[in-house]
Structures are given as structure tokens and as C-alpha cells.
Amino acid sequence: MNYQRIVYSLSIILLIIGLAMLLPLFCSLYYGETDSYALALSCGVIYLVGFLGFKKAKTEGEFLHKEVFFIVTVGWILVSIFGSIPYLLSGTFTSFADAFFETMSGFTTTGASVLTDVEALPHGLLLWRSLTHWLGGMGIIVLFVALFPSVGIGGMQMYQAEAPGGSLMKKIRPRISEMAKVLWSIYLIMTIAEIILLYIAGMPLFDAVCHTFGTVATGGFSIKNASIGYYNNAAIEWIITIFMFLSGANFALYYTIYRRKKLSVFTHNNEFKLYTLIVLTAIIFEVYSLYSISGYSIGDSIREAAFLVVSIITTTGFGTADFAQWSFLGQVILISLMFVGGCTGSTGGSIKVGRILVLIKQTKLELQRCLHPRAVLSLKIDGENVAHQNVLNVTVFFFLYIGIVLAGTILMTVVGRDLITSFTAAATCLGNIGPGLGLVGPTKNFAFLSGGEKYFLSFLMLLGRLEIYTVLVLFLPSFWRKG
Amino acid sequence: MRVIIIGAGKTGFIIAKILVEEKYDVVVIERQEERANTLQEYLDVEVIIGNGVKRTSLEEAGIREAGLVVAVTESDETNLVACMLAKTFGQAKTIAKVKNPEYVLENEKDKEMFSGIDYMINPKLVTAKEIAKLIDVPEALDVAYYAEGKIQLLELKIPEEAPVANKQLKDLKFESPFLIAAIIREKKLIIPRGNDLIYPQDIIFVLAKTVDMIQVESFLGNKREKVNRVVILGGGYTGLQLAKILENRKFKVKIIDKDYNRCVQIAKKLDQTMVLYGDATDINFLNNEDTGSADVFVSLTDDDKLNLLVSLIVKNLGVKRTIAQVGRSDYITLMENVGIDIGVSPRTLTANRILRFIHQGNKVISVTLLNNEGAEMTELLIAEDSPVANKKLKELNFPPGSLVASIYRKNQVILPKGDDVLRPGDSVTVFTLPDAAAKTLKYITG
Known about the structure:
heterodimer, B: alpha/beta, 26 strands
């Protein structure tokens, strides 16, 4: 591996984060609050380290495969380390484990928090916390590739190593840097649209910005202890529901619609259709559970069911209600949705609807093969052939995903946690969702966990966000061997 | 008009034969001396031994006066180059037979690919489309459509127990109008009159409105079977295209090929069709796939013997109808005699399609060759200045061996009687025996 190139790229990524931190800094100066010195100092540290690396290291030649995986994984860890400096300097957290967990949870758009009282935080830090969502949602590497097209062919590999859906994601522009720009533009437009709508619906501007960052990134950090439930406003809930749903769909679809000027793009996309179908079915189940079992009014049932179903399936994790109090049916539907996630090319986490679609179709083919052993079968999505290699990639991904949730559950129970807490904590962190059940339920938080558990769950978040392979490959002994 | 045909293979031969009958001046350029001699023996054409891609050969054939060049050699490249070269001499229209699907887009109308070629024809695509038509009306030996699809012509066999058997034509009364344009009996083609009888085993050409045809068929003793399951042998380009057409029409299609790589390739291109990798002469394999319960079995390999053998095997297993591609069209009758329901020759189909293109334009809408002997169904437009316009049919003297079969006027289909009048703007279908075609055309167009 060429460490010069790696240090150079990592420095740039760090500088991008440092630049982004100026926004909360100005915000805190505007409000004249105590956190401005912490943010300013953090910026200083990041610039110092960034410029040092930028100046000392040289960029030359093409990236090797190894380097790509290394840069993406280490880049994410690095931004989470440096991103946690403001929390530490301002005294929000005294332990590094807490600050790191909170930042990783932000960048990976998990939205699990170790803060017991969010509302006590000054505006600057609140904005930084939500901004980590927004940056991580579309992807730090995608931003890097968009801003620095000079990474060349390595850009595509880096993009794939970070993009949700990995190999299932198709190129919508011939150049990867252009594609990254297109995706970020769509993201920006959606962000502005939601801020305006929330503001009109009666949310203060600062709250609207923070919650929009949490929505379009499918993150889930709120600036209120009661999350979205704080506002108790149907219009706000529906706006957020719709934007969560849109952020859980493939962003490339919006571009295709813009290009072709036809809404039928949605109905021709099997993944989007399945996504809609799952959401609607889950809502029906939840409405039934809330209305007949828990005795809510029909209006409240629909509103709460829609909000939470979309919130969980898109892996956002915003809350309006404490679903730990819901019926078992209601809870188990939500837990199942944790294993679905958004579409490929969305900001959502978890397994992804596209992979579920491949698994369903392949299941059908395998059954057919039993009846027709001589049949030559080929899996197609939207009329296009899916290569065997990709099918295999998806099946193994599913195995790894389930395997890691189980391993995570076991490890948590080793240190004495109960089954529900352990299982949902592992699932919610790997899926980048946020709330779980039991001790990590929607009204609770992750503060009580030990430092070791926090690092472990942070690792699961990273695994989930980078879709397992990118991180896991670093553990291959041959990755580090020479030749 | 002078027509230059490049290549004296089967396709070239059929085209030359028909065009000679229609009084065209035909010049054939053929490279092989032996083939050239055979052609000269059978047809009244000028044959030049030479190469269609050489300027001198084309000039010798009279390219400067020619109105049409048809390139139908076995080589795509020769055909393409010959046509492009011919175009440089002047006004001749050009038609090229192109087998490689990569040269011809799947949309036949796409002529823009090579400048200088007016019409490209892909024999495999033509075959696939023709077989798809046959599968729509599986009991028919042949199907053709006129008047924008509103009129259907079927070639049917009269079954032994048909209620109409042994009756006079004038006694056949049915609520929906229909016309029996011709009967093939003991290999002879006749245009029947009212007092002629219909016998079992007769092959008839019946014309009716497409919407009425099902009833007409059952009146004539042919029940239309509902076709749902089709098995295709041979995953070549023809098989692939046929499967695509059929799966779009919601048929349940299976396609068998013994080349695994080819199977993988076509499986990627087909959506609903099941691609099976196996040997179709293996009865165990056929049974496992329940081939016997298929409604139609189509064999499309390049090997006539294999097509015949497999067709007979599956017929034995219980398949209702078998359609086989036959490379040598002279075997069609033989194959149909031993139990294959329909034999299809890509070369004959290609010739038909080219002839249709040649006839198009000067008032003729389409021409269909009805059997191997050369009976034709011509669809044409009645012009203002046509000698037959505004006259009652019974007042007209159509040449012997011809019959006005239908009139299509302002979305109305008329099966004419003697009192009906031909009006300018009508499109009519005219049935003709081989030697009457040219005379009839002249009689109508003046």
C-alpha cells in the first residue's frame, strides 16, 4: 500500500469535515453561546492535522483495491474521532467512549444517543450533531469524490465501497464524479424543500433545519427529548413521514424522472414497488394492532402507524410514540422492518429492499430448479439480468448480516444484558436505525452501557453503514500481507 | 422493369420464378457455374457467372437500367456491399438478405443503418414472426391477413366427420359470410363454383372477417384449440425471437437447446420463458418436462432430420400440433405426409416477403404466396382511372383463374357477389392461379 496517497486522501476528507464544522461555529457565534470556543478550537485542530497531512503527503498513480477499502473504512473512523472533539472540549461528555459513540451514531445515521437531556445542549453543538447525520447520509466519500474528481478510477471503487446497495447500484452518469454531484444535488434540493415545508407547518427555523438533516439522511437525532412527539402537530408528522419515505427510495430514480419527465419510472421499478408494498402492508398491520388491540382512535392509529413504520423501515428512528408500550404484534412488525431497510441508493441502512427482492426472486428460481433440474435460470430485475456473482454477493451479505446480529446479541448477553435489549441493540446499531426495545427502547438511551459496549456498538454501526464487506475485508490476513 | 438478383440459391430461385411469370426482365448473378446452369435450365432468365460485389459483373447485368437489385447470397457482407455498390450506379431500389441479427435491428423498419439499402430482410426474424402467426391459429396450415388485419385467410383441411363434407358449395349457408377461394384436391388447385362438392381431406382456402373466423371454422368442422403451452426446440436467433413474441402474448413457453452456453445467453434475454438445457431426442428428458402435454411443439434446429425425428417423438408423446423448420423446401410435403402438421421453409418465407416488398407501391398493398405451386392472393388499391372502377363484378371479364375475394371500403369488409361494384379507393383482395397473376394485375390497374 502507498501510504502517501492514503494520508493525502484522508487529509482531504478531514478538511471537508472541518469546513462543514464552520456552519455550527457561526451558528453558535450568532446565538452567542458558550460552545463557540469548543467548536472553534476543534476546527483549529482539524485544520492543523489536515493541512499537515495535505502538505507532507503526495498523491501519485492509481489507487489499489486495498487502499480504497482502507481509505473508506479508516476515513469513517477518523471523522468520527475528530468529529467528537467539540463534545469533549465543551464538556458535554467527559468520556471519549460517549463522544465517539455519539459521533459515529451521527455519521452512520443511526441516531442512537447517549445524551440523557438533549435539550440542555447549546445550539451550535445541536446543529453539529444533526450535521453529522446530513454529511454521513449521502456519504462523506461520495462528497469527496464529487469535490475531487482527480481520484479518477479509484472514485468508482470508493463510491461502491460506501454506497448503500453496493454492486446493485447502477451508474446514472458516465463519470462517477458527475454522478456524485447529481446525487448530492438531489439531496440538497430535498433538504431545502423539507426545511421550508416544516417552517411553514410551524416548526422554528433552527428546529426545522436540524430535523430535516435527521430526516433526509434517515438519521434520527432530534433536538427534543420527546423527538418529533414534542411538537404534537399532525402536519409536521406527515411532512416528516413523506420525506423519510422519499429518502428511503433510490435517489437515482429521482434523477431518471427528472431526465425522462415521466412518473411511470416509479411503477417500472420493482424495488420501489416492493418498498411501497412492504410499507403499506406494515401500516395496515400496525393500524390493526393500534386500533383493535391497543384501543387508539382510527385517526391516531393511522397517523402513528404511518410515522413509525416509515421511520423504522427507512432506518431513521424518529419517534412520536413509545412503541415499547404497543402490542406484541405492533412490536414484532417494527422489529421485522429493522431487517428490511431502505432501497439501494437511498440514505437508509439495514439490508435494503433491493437485496430482499433478489433473495425473493432467487428463492423462486431455486424452487423451480427442483422441478426442472435442467432449466437454465437467470434472475432478472426490471427486465435486466442480474449476474450470478451479484446474487451470490447478496446471499452472503444476508448471511453475514444475520450472523453479525446474532454474534452481537451473544456478546451483549455475555456482559449480562437481557435478551430483548441485546438483540435489539445489535439489530438497531447494525441497521443504523436508532431505537431498540427493552433498556434501549424509544424513550430510553444508550448512556448506561459500559465503555466497551459503546465501542462495540459503534463498530456495528460502521459495519452496517459501509455494508459489512468494506470493513470486514480489512480483517483478512492477506489484506496486510505483502505480495 | 429489369431486376437483378444476386445469388441463385433457393430464395433467389423462387423470386426469379415468380418475377419471370409476372413479366419482369430478370438477370441473375451467380458465382458458381453449376448453380447458374441449373437456373438457366429451369427459368427464362439471363444468368451471369460473376460476383455481385464487382462493378464489371453489375454493369454486365445492366445495372444502369435496372429498377431493382435483390441480393440474396448466403453471405451477409456480400449482400450488403453489393447493394451499396449497386446504389452508386443510379436509381435501382435495393433489397438485402441479412442473417446476422447484429446488422439488422429487431425493428424491421429500421433501414437507416446502412445507407443505400432500401430494405433489409432477416430470414430468421421473418420465420419467427410467421410461426407466431401460425400458433395463433394452430389448426390452420397457413394464415394471412388483409385489410389492416380485418380479413383473415386460412388454409384448412376438411376433417372426415365435418358436417359440410360431401355437400355442394352453394348449399353451405351460415350466418357469417365467408368465401372458399380455392380447394387443393389431389395436389391440384381449383377455384370452386357453386355446384362443386367439398370432400373430406380437401385443403381449402377460406376467407372471412377476422372476428367471424372462429365461427366459420367450426361451421366447416375445425374447432379452434386454445393454445397455451408452446415448446420450442433450438435456441438460435429464430427460437429466441419466437419465444420473445410468444411470451409477450402470455403463452407459457419452454425452449430447449443442447448448448449450455447458448442456454445461458438466451436465458438472460428472456423474461418468462423457461430455458432448458438438454437433448431433445432423450425421451426421459422430454417426459420429465411433461413435453407431451404441450399444445404446440416447434422445432427450429438447422438439422432437418433432427427436426423431423423430434417432431415425431413428441407427436407420439401427445403434443397436439408440431411445426418444423425445413431447410429444403421440397421435403415439406413429405414431412407433412408422415405426420408433421406444418413444415416451414425460411427461404420460401423470405422470398415471399421480398416479393411483397417488390409489389408494394404501385397500387399493390401486398402479395401472399399461398402454396408451393404459386397461387397468389394479391391485395391492391382500385385507382380513379382503373378500367374496373365503378363497374359491377358480373359485368367485368376477369381473366380465367382469378377471383375477387374481398372488398375493404371505409372500414367495411364486403365479401362480394356479382352485383357488388368496385369503387375507386377500395382495397380488394384477388385470388389468382399461377398463370393468371400478371394478366389479372394488368386487367385491374390498366
